[in-house]
Amino acid sequence: MSAGLKLHLAVLLFGAAGLMGKVIAMPATQLVLGRTLIGALALALFIGFFAKQEHRYGWSLVGMSKLTLLVGSGIMLAIHWWTFFYAIQLAGVGIAVVGFSAFPVFVTLLEALLQKRQVQPMDALVTAIVVIGLWLVAPSISWQNATFQGLAWGVISGALFAVLALLNKSLVSVFGGLHLGFGQQAIAAICCGLLVDWSALRISAYDGVNLLLLGVLLTAVPHVMFISCLRHIRAHMAAIVTSLEPVYAIIFAWLLLAEQPPLSTLLGAGIILFAVVLGHWYQNRAAA
After folding, report:
1. H helices of 176-262, where?
2. Residue-wise pLDDT tens digits, 157-216
3. For 126-156, what is the HEC assignment?
């Protein structure tokens, strides 16, 4: 399988993961606990059998600052997935993923802040276009409206994912991609486990099967595929393909859950996708 096809398949599977927020009848915290626990176990098995030599340094040799960042990124992952699934449960898959799709803009703005450089005119233009796209999707600017709440939580989820992406830049070279994914999901599972009311935890056979599907096929498998293909795909191309995740999620929700998005949602999603691709194109052109 070519690296390009593997990348598209990984993003396709990530896009399908959002459906589980509607399919599995569990609160968001329990849902994230199941996803991260099963995902961590699946990655541990994969590392144990197939990727023992991915990273040759023991974790005991890693500095305390990097371990602290790892723990922080695991907590960030838990909050990111909680806000994402909560947004889906509030407003549906389409609205939540449209809010999340703004994450590349947060990456650009955070990089400018961390590097202490001025925001470029193109970055400001892309941000303005994304805001217009979100405004088209929002039914009304009122926290009493569940759709607006879902959109807002989706945007927050995207912002948290942007922070996580920047953290991963400094951590992946230390721990390796697979070990980093395992560590983050294990820490996220521990965090959720501390917050869950275990006495109230009830999992039906149907939800249990879907949790396995979510943790293995829609989390661990695409994670391995995504990491492996990054060695052969240019970073800007990977970012553009990743921007298709909300598109895949909306299509899946439309076909499998009969969540037919209104024209305003499709138009807003299209505008945001255009802005993201425009931003990546400009960055690639400037770097050439």
Report:
1. 177-195, 205-212, 221-229, 235-242, 245-256
2. 999 988 988 888 778 878 877 888 899 999 999 999 999 888 878 888 999 999 999 999
3. HHHHHHHHHHHHCCCCCCCCHHHHHHHHHHH
